[in-house]
Design goal:
This protein is mainly alpha-helical. The chain is built from six helices and no strands. Helix 2 packs antiparallel against helix 6, helix 3 packs antiparallel against helix 5 and helix 5 runs antiparallel to helix 6. The radius of gyration is 20 Å and the shape is globular.
Length: 149
């Protein structure tokens, strides 16, 4: 109701943008940080003693799994924004496999959510690094790949 009153008193102008918010600020670092968390949580889950069925261990395992899944989803979200909002058809000339790389990276995010696999978590990090390199090359910059851990 309040929204209707406000929109009646202050009509909004129609606007157009090439994406959800035309900020122009994109950086694959966000995806990297989330992918690193996926890798970290995967390592922590694998380090737990599977024979320890104490409430504390089960609780810890549950928390690690929840974080891993959330971080994998966040990685996918940031990758999809780069794919759909930053990269343009012109970038395909320099990167003809761009769509395939992003599609496979998004699939790795899902793989990391569903399974506890160090191989998948490392593959996700490698895919994000590859996208990092494509991104900065598209901007004409050479930015080194650095991880927080």
């Amino acid at each position: 109701m309040l929204t209707n009153i406000i929109s009646t008193l202050i009509p909004a102008k129609d606007v157009a943008a090439h994406c959800d918010g035309p900020c122009g600020v994109y950086d694959p670092a966000q995806a990297r940080v989330h992918a690193e968390a996926v890798l970290s949580m995967t390592k922590k889950i694998l380090a737990l003693d599977p024979s320890d069925n104490s409430h504390e261990t089960i609780n810890t395992m549950s928390r690690y799994i929840a974080i891993k899944e959330e971080e994998a989803h966040s990685t996918k979200t940031h990758l999809l924004v780069l794919w759909t909002d930053f990269f343009k058809p012109a970038h395909l000339e320099a990167n003809p496999d761009l769509h395939d790389k992003f599609w496979k990276a998004a699939k790795l995010c899902s793989e990391c959510k569903v399974h506890v696999s160090l191989d998948s978590a490392n593959a996700l990090m490698a895919a994000v690094e590859d996208i990092h390199n494509m991104f900065w090359a598209a901007k004409g910059q050479d930015r080194p790949w650095q991880t927080a851990s």
